[in-house]
UniProtKB/TrEMBL annotation, chain A:
Keywords: Cell membrane, Membrane, Transmembrane, Transmembrane helix. GO terms for cellular component: plasma membrane. It comes from Pacificibacter marinus. This is L-arabinose transporter permease protein. Pfam families: BPD_transp_2. InterPro entries: ABC_transp_permease. GO terms for molecular function: transmembrane transporter activity. Its main location: membrane. It comes from the Bacteria.
UniProtKB/TrEMBL annotation, chain B:
Keywords: Signal. It comes from Pacificibacter marinus. This is Purine-binding protein. Signal peptide: none annotated. GO terms for cellular component: plasma membrane. Residues 86-325 form the ABC transporter substrate-binding protein PnrA-like domain. Coiled coil: none annotated. InterPro entries: ABC-Purine-Binding, PnrA-like, TAT_signal, TAT_signal_bac_arc. NCBIfam families: TAT_signal_seq.
Length: 311, 410
């Protein structure tokens, strides 16, 4: 039981990076912009978080700074993809490498020392002391609750239960129709792409201030790409994407536990588990239920730059 | 496993040389003047996945005289310090606080020892044709001596072959030339010493290990660590988790958590960062690290570290190069001559430290080799007969687990 509680705890902790970054990507993709710069944004945010707390040891300050840096980087990206209408894939890849390079260069002085301040566990009276659930669910830092509870519910509500959310989705599905209805496609795309980038960088801040409390070049290790993939896997839905991140974190942790408990399965097979699981979960529901294909489909206008004249 | 867009980290060490030029060419017979250093040939910590076959073949042939001794080349001509350019090619970033950082310290020692000398370095060189380009660039910039601080195999070999006036060194190299040598460390001795302390400090007798790949460095590290631990706790076992990377703090953190959840209370590993030390600190467990002093990441958890120190080696080789006495060597830097335990952590009891240090002193003063039979593998077969001592080459190429090590041999 202790092992299972530990598994769930690690799933939340490790899944947090993926969940926040993927949530940001959902925002961008729902308005029709695919941002492949997530890996670089996480690196930027991770470095920023550590750099800021090394000056002022307040974790919130570091996390906010990461969000802010992400917002600025996102605005540059949005300027390129939404205003100038450059190719989204190329601009995204460029953002990844710029982010990784900038973070590596600017982060040099901060690598090699532990984070000066981190998000501590929140002790919830009674709940944290529960035998099993206490460790699994109620012994996390505050960011975990924000990432897995508050944010996805908020985004889900705005996206599916408000007029603004309807407009937002319309921009992603059919920008021409949205434009005709009087919605400013450019404004909507610009701000949600920037906000999404901000969350991705926030995932970096979470990484170095709550999960692995130190910065070094390469600390992201490809998790940004997983986040992009999870968005597709979760059918571009905020709550699903967070659950998918949790599942991914859980299966990854399960692979390690399998090794630790010496299951008679090769380590390389256990390392494949998260990916096998992802593929299986993408294929099986569609095979079983054809309608899933439509429900899980990408926004129609994804990656399509919008020109008013060009119908 | 990772989506390796940042190539230097994702795939940098997962490399299989297409064609091992001459694992058998190198006799390792020119370990002339550095008496305490042992010669070596193929693999090392940054070793390769196909080491089994090569190591086996090497071990077979080395005793039979079938191997051609390294040709006794005449030393390269001397160079004035102000004309000298010493180049370093690294596998990771110098800021990694681990392997590459330690090599970078070596470069700084060279700069301090030879004022007026010029140095240059490139970080995060991928294992690809890019490496050839970078090493070739060193040569065209006028480098007199090039250190590759990880194995680049053919990518370096081709460059060295075309630049006979430049001295090359390859950490864990296997294909020597008249101007290409190699070097590595005997990390199994400090691992054994650290294992004694770990065994004494483990209440559960369950040790955990976070490994990169099932390569000889991981086998020799785990085996030596457990053999040390078993001298104080004969029932101790060691559980290994392989994370398929030398540097992935997120995976190492998860792996460390999984090990602690499964009853381990002392962690060891071979990582270029401090992820699992931070986990141990948070969970009140203990940890032994690699490469450098990392106690600031977990002052209460820190037992010691397998410290690598290439400073003296680099200074010595550069000196020989400048003097015009340099010929390639194949060196395994010994205990206290390039690899050692770090100063004991704050929470290590004095009697535990003394006990472990007794073994270390014995190794240093008497040349004691603790790797003496009878040693059984994880399946119970006797691999080293009673009374027989394992040679440095066997330790270097270790590719089976001793009894009590789980997770590597499956």
């Amino acid at each position: 039981m202790d092992v299972l509680a530990g598994l769930i705890q690690t799933a939340f902790l490790a899944g947090g990076v993926l969940a926040l970054a993927a949530l940001g990507e959902v925002l961008a993709e729902r308005v029709g912009v695919v941002n492949l710069g997530v890996e670089g944004l996480i690196a930027l945010g991770a470095m920023t978080g550590i750099a800021v707390v090394s000056v002022a040891p307040v974790p919130w300050l570091g996390f906010s700074a990461a969000l802010l840096v992400g917002l600025v980087a996102g605005m540059v990206f949005a300027l390129a993809t939404v205003v100038v209408r450059a190719n989204q894939v190329l601009a995204g890849l460029a953002l990844t490498y710029i982010g990784l390079g900038l973070a590596a260069t600017l982060g040099k002085p901060f690598s090699g020392s532990p984070a000066a301040a981190t998000f501590a566990k929140v002790d919830i009276p009674i709940l944290s002391d529960l035998p099993f659930w206490g460790r699994a669910l109620f012994s996390h830092n505050i960011l975990v609750y924000i990432i897995f509870l508050a944010l996805p519910v908020l985004v889900h509500y705005v996206m599916f239960y408000t007029r603004h959310g309807l407009n937002m989705r319309a921009v992603g599905e059919n920008p021409a129709a949205a434009d005709a209805a009087g919605i400013s496609v450019m404004k909507m795309r610009f701000w949600y792409t920037s906000l999404g980038a901000s969350l991705a960088a926030g995932a970096g801040g979470y990484l170095t201030l709550a999960f692995v409390p130190s910065w070094s070049e390469g600390v992201v290790s490809g998790r940004g790409w997983i986040a992009v993939a999870l968005v597709i896997f979760a059918g571009f839905r905020p709550i699903n994407v967070v659950l998918a991140a949790l599942l991914f974190g859980f299966i990854t942790a399960l692979g390690f536990v399998g090794q630790a408990r010496n299951w008679p399965v090769a380590a390389s097979v256990l390392a494949m588990l998260p990916y096998l699981g992802t593929i299986a979960l993408m294929i099986l529901p569609v095979l079983a239920w054809q309608k899933m294909r439509r429900i899980m489909a990408a926004p129609e206008g994804l990656t399509q730059p919008y020109f008013r004249d060009d119908r | 496993m990772r989506v390796a867009v940042h190539a230097p980290f994702g795939i940098r060490k997962l490399c299989i040389p297409k064609e091992a030029k001459s694992p058998l060419e190198w006799a390792g017979t020119n370990s002339k003047e550095v008496s305490s250093m042992f010669s070596t040939k193929d693999l090392s910590r940054r070793g390769f996945l196909n080491m089994g076959a090569m190591a086996g073949a090497g071990a077979l042939l080395s005793g039979t005289g079938l191997i051609r001794p390294a040709s006794a080349a005449s030393p390269l001509a001397p160079i004035a310090a102000e004309d000298a350019l010493i180049a370093f090619g690294h596998t990771g970033p110098t800021s990694d606080e681990g392997w590459t950082w330690a090599h970078d310290q070596g470069m700084k020692a060279v700069e301090a020892a030879f004022p007026g000398i010029k140095t240059t370095f490139v970080e995060s060189i991928p294992y690809s044709a890019d490496a050839t380009r970078i090493f070739r660039q060193f040569v065209s910039e006028g480098a007199n001596m090039v250190f590759a601080t990880s194995s680049y195999g053919d990518f370096l070999y081709d460059v060295a072959k075309r630049a006979p006036d430049v001295a090359f060194y390859e950490c864990d190299g296997r294909a020597p030339l008249d101007n290409l040598g190699n070097y590595y460390v005997q990390h199994w001795y400090p691992s054994y010493v650290a294992g004694i302390a770990a065994g004494a400090m483990s209440a559960s007798g369950k040790l955990g290990y976070i490994g990169s790949f099932p390569v000889p460095s991981v086998y020799s590290g785990t085996n030596a660590f457990l053999m040390g631990a078993r001298t104080v706790n004969p029932e101790a076992t060691l559980q290994t988790i392989i994370i398929n990377s030398w540097f992935d703090p997120q995976a190492a953190t998860q792996a460390g958590t999984a090990l602690l959840d499964n009853g381990c209370d002392v962690l060891f590993g071979i990582m270029d960062e401090a992820g699992y030390l931070q986990v141990a600190q948070e969970r009140g467990a203990k940890a032994v690290m690699w490469n450098t002093d990392l106690r600031r990441y977990g002052p209460d958890a820190y037992i010691t570290s397998v410290m690598v120190d290439f400073k003296a080696f680099y200074v010595e080789q550069v000196r020989r190069r400048l003097e015009g006495t340099w010929t390639p060597t194949a060196d395994l830097l010994p205990l206290s001559g390039g690899v050692d335990r770090d100063a004991w952590g704050a929470t290590v009891p004095a009697e535990v430290a003394a006990k472990a240090d007794m073994a270390r002193t014995k190794m240093l003063t008497e040349g004691w080799n603790p790797f003496v039979g009878e040693i059984k593998d994880s399946k119970g077969n006797v691999k080293v007969a009673a009374g027989q001592a394992m040679t440095e080459q066997e330790l270097y190429h270790w590719n089976w687990s001793v009894e009590g090590v789980f997770g590597l041999d499956s």
